[in-house]
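Input (Cell division ATP-binding protein FtsE):
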Amino acid sequence: MIHFNSVSKKFGSSLALEDISLEIKQGEFVFIVGPSGAGKSTLLRILTRELLPTNGEILVGKVDITKIKDRDVPHFRRKVGIVFQDFKLLDDRTVFENVALTLEVQNKSDEEIQKMVEHTLKLVEIWGQRNLFPRQLSGGEAQRTAIARAVVGKPDIVLADEPTGDLDPKTAWGVIQLLNEINSWGTTILMATHNQEIVNTLKRRVIKLKAGKIVSDTKEGKYD
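Output:
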């Protein structure tokens, strides 16, 4: 599904990622861990083509995304759902409208949008909040909206960058259970996190970064 081959990224003279090589199979749930500044977010941003690596290649399926043309990036991003720590919801749109935006840019019909958004909001258990605006939501509801927006288009991959960072423990676990369910559909999940308890409880693959390098990569790993 995903192959990083000798990927490095520099910002000026600073090396954010150094010689990263890894393979992630379809349907895996992988935690990306490490201290602040280790390169977790940079790795995810490169995978969305928000950033280009300084060196190396990245294959998603059989496509080297470092070589696709700028005009083809939006089409590639349909395969990738993104969940952020700070939600990044549009304040002037309702829950329904925030999630529908993903499908609008894919030129789905109004009938398709209605059906797909309703189905997804019911899955993440916030259909009742569909007409509320982000300012009216709790943190957990906002994050569930963000997850719904990420998965409504049925992407192959979901990238989650510290999705529980601003949530209380109970709400955080609800979000993790939701991501776990999405993973059970066959969706590949990459989640960057500092949360040791979540990582150590779920016992999934753990890739640890330090100063831009992979220092460990273990199945059913721990974060200590």
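Residues 75 and 98 are 19 Å apart (CA to CA).
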